[in-house]
Amino acid sequence: MWLLTATLGNFFLMLLQAGEASKAPITDQQRLVNTIFENYDKALRPVENTMTATNVTLNPGLFSIVDTDEASESIVIAQTFRMMWKDFFLSWNPNEYGGMKQLLIPLSLIWHPDIFVINLIEIEITLPEEKNYASINYDGSVLVTVPEIVTFHCKYHINMFPFDVQNCTMRFTSWMYTAEQMDLFHLTQTDLDMYTNSTEWDFISFLPRKEKVFHGVTENSWVYINYDLIIQRKPTYYLLTFVLPCVIITTISIIGIFAPFNDSGDREEKVTMGLTTMLTMAVIFTVITDQMPKTSEGMPLLGNEKRPEIK
Ligand SMILES: *[C@@H]1O[C@H](CO)[C@@H](O)[C@H](O)[C@H]1NC(C)=O
Ligand SMILES: *[C@@H]1O[C@H](CO)[C@@H](O)[C@H](O)[C@H]1NC(C)=O
Ligand SMILES: *[C@@H]1O[C@H](CO)[C@@H](O)[C@H](O)[C@H]1NC(C)=O
């Protein structure tokens, strides 16, 4: 009986060992992730002392100007939105993990700053969420890059249309964290390596400005990073489709004054010509006003010129 139990015991021990041996050995990367995430809580801002602010550095890279809509006062741009910060809990000694210095893990697993564009109208993140990775360095610095299409509010100044220069400000801030909890920084240069020229606008500059705003209601301040996108309209299209026809029509209407008499002494041609040119001007004016914001702050140069002629 004793012998049988011992044999059975040995047998089970062998089975157990065989089972363990068939498992792949745990890698340095798995060991690191297990150690890091044992006590990690992604809901909490990762600082050693909650009185210190998390420093977040922004570095958006402009891809292209997708669309501008003067009538609804919005602009659409494509960009890669980069954020860098330090996570106190995500650091390790590379020597203990086979010299591994960098780790890529899904962004959804870690805490990340709630930074967004405050004058936002619409945002489309072009990368699916599960493909969105954070790159973590062994010293705890985290880099996140999100490709996105952003529609934000922009006040157009159209007085000089079609020779206008626009200043569209994209304002980044944290939604919940105040200036004491989160400080924002920017690089002096913006990343334009991926920028492709627009057919409608000439790019002039895309530069950051830091601003601290006090909100009276909550008695707190928030840090804003404003990126001023300065663009200048390429006027050729408008010159060819609006200005040139206007000049021709105006010339014709002036010639109309000298239209010849008919046999009975009436100037029929003059009336017809005058009416036709007036209608044409009305059509052109409608097309221009369709593209303009419904503002009373200033009329475009082109509209200003044409208004007296329509009256
Ligand atoms: C954040 O930036 C400030 C100012 O540059 C610096 O004094 C502070 O040490 C930084 N905090 C951390 C956690 O790096
Ligand atoms: C763009 O607008 C912002 C906010 O009004 C202003 O501070 C900035 O100086 C402007 N930039 C240029 C180049 O005019
Ligand atoms: C974009 O336009 C700028 C100036 O208008 C020009 O210097 C630059 O070469 C253009 N880039 C490309 C890729 O066409």
From TrEMBL:
MF terms (GO), sorted A to Z: extracellular ligand-gated monoatomic ion channel activity; transmembrane signaling receptor activity
Coiled coil: none
SUPFAM superfamilies from the UniProt entry: Neurotransmitter-gated ion-channel transmembrane pore, Nicotinic receptor ligand binding domain-like
Domain Neurotransmitter-gated ion-channel ligand-binding: 29-235
Signal peptide: 1-21
Pfam family, one: Neur_chan_memb
Any single Gene Ontology cellular-component annotation: membrane
Membrane topology: Multi-pass membrane protein
Transmembrane segments: 237-259, 271-289
InterPro entries for the chain: Neur_chan_lig-bd (IPR006202), Neur_chan_lig-bd_sf (IPR036734), Neur_channel (IPR006201), Neuro-gated_channel_TM_sf (IPR036719), Neuro_actylchol_rec (IPR038050), Neurotrans-gated_channel_TM (IPR006029)
Subcellular location, record wording: Membrane
Domain Neurotransmitter-gated ion-channel transmembrane: 243-303
Keywords, sorted A to Z: Membrane, Signal, Transmembrane, Transmembrane helix
Top-rank lineage group of the source organism: Eukaryota
Name of the molecule in the record: Uncharacterized protein
Organism: Plectus sambesii
